[in-house]
Hints:
By secondary structure, this protein is of the alpha+beta class. The protein folds into two domains: 2-35; 39-171, Nucleoside Triphosphate Pyrophosphohydrolase, CATH 3.90.79.10. Helix content is 21%, strand content 49%. The chain contains three helices and ten strands, in the order E-E-E-E-E-E-E-H-E-E-E-H-H. It has helices at residues 79-91, 143-151, 158-171, and strands at 2-11, 16-24, 27-35, 39-46, 50-58, 63-67, 70-72, 93-105, 114-125, 136-142. Strands 4, 5, 6, 7, 8, 9 and 10 form a seven-stranded mixed β-sheet that branches. Strands 1-2-3 form a three-stranded antiparallel β-sheet, with no helix packed on it. Helix 2 packs across helix 3 (158-171).
Amino acid sequence: MRLVSQRTIYQGRVIRLIREVLEVDGRRIIRETVRHPGAVVIVPVLDGERLVFVRQYRRAVGRFLLELPAGTLEPGERREACARRELQEETGWRARRWRRIAQFYAAPGVLSERMTVFLARGLVRAAARPDPDERLEPVVLPFRRALAKVRTGQIRDGKTIIGLLLTEKLLR
């Protein structure tokens, strides 16, 4: 596979849409991909295996979703620093102990976004500071109840499902 040409079709606040012409086995093909700076997902664990989620409005699907707290990396920001910032902004909690547990690509067929999952423990209350455009509310659920919501389709967010399944062995 050889890159013949590449151009930015759209540059937004967070994403960039790229159109590439590639040569594959003597044929030219066109690929469009979305470049994303990356993001973090936080699994905040309270005593008693309770987790902190956010109920957040997602314009792309036109509804509120129950999700683990998450956020996009700012330019030059380290992943753990982003996780710390997002946890407090979205939930009003801070964590004393952090553990990186996984990384994955959100949708590698079209999107470069790499997500890093962190386990956050030793939570203490702090002031929430959501972004002005975010409509969300923190929700505390027992871990088993959250897993049940995955099985029944009440939790549909991929990063949340991945975070919960990865955490299951760590909590047992």
